[in-house]
């Protein structure tokens, strides 16, 4: 029973990490769009496309978030596996 709770705890932590990274990276994409839009309005750059910027940002954010969450999940499950072997 304890093993199930440990596995569930690590899985929940991985989901929280995924959500946190995704949120931070999407926020960066929004800021990038706003910066490019402001520069375009000042005549210092080409017009900004929110669709293009957010499509690339959401793709990159999903990959990066998944890698970090997978790392957390693998580390947690490896810890559980090592502790079970030891006992």
Structure description:
The chain has 87 residues and is mainly alpha-helical. The protein has one domain. 89% of the residues lie in helices and 0% in strands. It has two helices and no strands. It has helices at residues 2-41, 50-86. Helix 1 packs antiparallel against helix 2 (50-86). The longest helix has 40 residues, at 2-41. The protein starts with a helix and ends with a helix.
**Count of discrete alpha- or pi-helical segments spanning 4 or more residues:** 2
Described by the principal axes of the CA atoms, the overall outline is rod-shaped
- Please state the average pLDDT score: 95
Characterize the biggest β-sheet: none
Question: Any chance you could write out the topology, listing elements then pairs?
Answer:
Elements: H1 2-41, H2 50-86
Helix pairs in contact: 1-2
TL;DR?
This protein is mainly α. It has 2 helices and no strands.
Name its key features.
mainly alpha; 2 helices; 89% helix; rod-shaped
